[in-house]
Specification:
CAP_dom; SCP-like extracellular; four-stranded mixed beta sheet; 4 strands; Allrgn_V5/Tpx1_CS
Length: 193
Amino acid sequence: MDGSKLLGGALAAAGLLCATGASVAASAGSASRTANVSREAPHDNRMSDHHARRILALHNRERQQLGLPKLKWNRALEREAHNYGSVLARKGRLEHAQNGARNGTGENLWMGTAGQWPVETMVGLFIEEKRHYRHGNFPEISRTGKWADVAHYTQVIWRDTQEVGCSVVNERGWDVLVCRYWPAGNVWGRKAY
């Protein structure tokens, strides 16, 4: 295994980062081709409908298990996610966008070596955090005592969230997944569902 795959694996395992959204949000109004991102027309940065359906199905499968309403796909959030994913790929590291820059939407991030990870693994790592989840008022929601250990998961299952838009950006040797959620989850003092 080459060093880039090791680095990508380490980033994926240890670098899931924390999901954000400390308050309810207001509505949110690459030139490279990869297996994960499809260009449907010139200057169209939308994900293929196939990839969007897969990501949405992963979110909704988890929500359905809890009896929560299904999320709807939002192309505007997808475009915002794509634009920010390109920024992160150029930086080569994950950091959440400032709340104002993302119109107060929630955000989940993931990064790994380009072409090595199916979207099921990317989103699956968000969902795997449920092993640490403890039902309570945010931020008292983790068996580890650290809310960030479950904040991707809680954003996926946050009852009040209605829409999601994600994009996988492949640039500079990275796959970067950015998912934006409206309204944002992880609201201080409230339960996920």
